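for the recovery benchmark. tokens below, seq after
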């Protein structure tokens, strides 16, 4: 059997190709960013053609750098930014327009219209999701409406899909138009219990089912790749957060992870039953092994965390590298009573308020750039605290520690502040690239490279731990100030 496993991680800001050995150690990596296109306030787009090129490039670069060929790979998995939606022509294989990114808010009116007098929870019982701009189905409908594509879609000329579908289509040379259960669970078009497209939902939301990809299990043989991965079995597709749940080996109910990337996403394995949320979380598919029942999860999604650090860098020029935010935040003793609520795409979990927009509150003549940086970092930890409390309320599980991963976990100040606020240990695994790792491990399970989930669990090991040390009264004070700041962000969009 070939020596290694690989994953394509098609993320919001970049695409990575990573090769891992049996113990989960990184053997090769290449990464390329793609353009973030902001045509107007609230809109975010990606050029799917550019993403296809970047994907090809990182596969080639990583293999070359490690002196590997496709023959060295036992299997490949795909993991991807979720909900980002595009439509392409089945004949030419070319996108009809830019993809609409998950952060984009242009479907706000459409979502309101769909909610009608039944409110945003109209489809929650069936889909696990509130009607929000976040999800894919209404994004597809928006494209069909505004590019006048309904007729072509009805004729079957067009393929609708998320980034996993697009990447699989390209890896299979146009042979496969599929998505996996985890990605499909983010469209508002799939029935969570049956794991199939729901024709009533498709009709209500206005996306013809024959334009949608076939839903396949997340973990199982999907296709044999062509091109630079010729002959390698594509054996797993998982949305990025679901892949991280898998990569963190959260295989038993009650286990959870929190990923600190562009946004933050906490997922808890809830086993074979979808648990409806009453606290502003989503119910979603955790992962789905072929031949088995899907494993469900509760999710707290926060739209803006690491991207706020990028915003400080790109839009304010306060720093020139993300990592510099820590030194700037440490240049002040504390937040100086400054709070930054980064509601750039409205607020996601647990508030789900599309009418919110970003605010910085508590400014006085005393405040400086250090306080802004500190408040920006702390906003990630405050939002995570809100989500963790919702998770405990919905699941009844009292956390004793939190497994974390993602780019922002490099920030010591943030991780310590996070442990302080949560009052539980924050634990980082040895391989922090859990998203790509999860997709690779899942592909390995599908092809028999690993025998069992237990064998995969054994590859997980702890690298670092932060213990809480803040007085409870101080935590309460800070959380109270944060809650007041959140109130200030609401109702801005009228
Ligand atoms: N030292 C740091 N302190 C704070 N934030 C950081 C630090 N290093 C990286 N980041 C932030 O982490 C994010 C990148 O993390 P990661 O690579 O996990 O993102 P990602 O979510 O996987 O990206 P994508 O959404 O493209 O998949 C960026 O938003 C960056 O600003
Ligand atoms: Mg990612």
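predicted aa per position
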């Amino acid at each position: 059997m070939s020596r290694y496993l690989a994953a394509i991680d098609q993320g919001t800001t970049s695409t990575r190709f990573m090769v891992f050995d049996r113990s989960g150690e990184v053997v090769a990596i290449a990464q390329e960013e793609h353009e973030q296109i902001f045509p107007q306030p609230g809109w975010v787009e990606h050029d799917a053609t550019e993403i296809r090129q970047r994907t090809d490039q990182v596969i080639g670069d990583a293999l070359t750098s490690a002196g590997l060929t496709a023959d060295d790979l036992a299997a490949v998995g795909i993991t991807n930014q979720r909900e980002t939606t595009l439509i392409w022509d089945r004949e030419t294989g070319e996108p009809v327009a830019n993809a609409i990114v998950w952060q984009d808010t242009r479907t706000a009116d459409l979502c309101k219209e769909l909610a009608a007098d039944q409110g945003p929870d109209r489809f929650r019982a069936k889909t696990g999701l509130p009607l929000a701009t976040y999800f894919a189905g209404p994004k597809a409908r928006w494209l069909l409406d505004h590019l006048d594509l309904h007729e072509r879609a009805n004729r079957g000329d067009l393929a609708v899909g998320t980034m996993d579908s697009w990447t699989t289509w390209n890896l299979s040379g146009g042979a496969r138009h599929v998505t996996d259960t985890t990605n499909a669970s983010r469209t508002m078009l799939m029935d969570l219990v049956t794991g199939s497209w729901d024709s009533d939902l498709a009709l209500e939301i206005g996306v013809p089912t024959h334009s949608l990809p076939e839903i396949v299990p997340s973990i199982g043989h999907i296709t044999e790749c062509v091109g630079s991965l010729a002959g390698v079995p594509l054996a797993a597709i998982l949305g990025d957060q679901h892949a991280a749940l898998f990569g963190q080996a959260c295989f038993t109910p009650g286990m959870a992870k929190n990923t600190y990337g562009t946004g933050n996403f906490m997922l808890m394995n809830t086993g074979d039953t979808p648990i409806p949320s009453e606290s502003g979380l989503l119910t979603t598919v955790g992962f789905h092994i072929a031949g088995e029942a899907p494993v469900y999860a509760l999710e707290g999604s926060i739209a803006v965390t690491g991207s706020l650090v990028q915003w400080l860098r790109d839009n304010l020029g306060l720093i020139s590298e993300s990592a510099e935010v820590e030194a700037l935040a440490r240049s002040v003793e504390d937040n100086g009573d400054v709070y930054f609520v980064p509601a750039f795409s409205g607020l996601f979990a647990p508030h789900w308020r599309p009418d919110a927009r970003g605010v910085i509150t508590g400014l006085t003549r005393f405040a400086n750039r250090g306080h802004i940086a500190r408040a920006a970092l702390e906003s990630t930890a405050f939002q995570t605290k809100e989500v963790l409390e919702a998770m405990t309320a919905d699941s009844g599980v009292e956390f004793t520690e939190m497994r974390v991963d993602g780019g922002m976990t490099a920030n010591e100040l943030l991780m310590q502040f996070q442990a302080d606020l949560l009052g539980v240990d924050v634990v980082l695994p040895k391989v922090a690239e859990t998203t790509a790792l999860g997709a690779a491990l899942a592909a390995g399970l599908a092809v028999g490279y690993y025998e069992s989930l237990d064998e995969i669990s054994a590859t997980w090991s702890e690298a670092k731990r932060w213990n809480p040390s803040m007085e409870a009264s101080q935590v309460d004070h800070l959380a109270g100030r944060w809650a007041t700041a959140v109130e200030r962000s609401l109702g801005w969009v009228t």
